[in-house]
Amino acid sequence: STDQQVTAGLLIPLVTNIVQRFHFIKLSFTASIYASLIF
Q1: Cα–Cα distances in angstroms (integers) from residue 20 to residues 3, 8, 15, 23, in the given order
Q2: How much is the pTM?
Q3: Would you say which domain of life the source belongs to (predicted)?
């Protein structure tokens, strides 16, 4: 139905945003761990 398309249209950008943010946090976390190991 049209409602499902609207819901998908709203959810997909939101999920993408969350995934990108989570990925960035994971990268920062990993980088800080490596930095603490090196220094």
Answers
A1: 26, 18, 9, 5
A2: 0.58
A3: Eukaryota
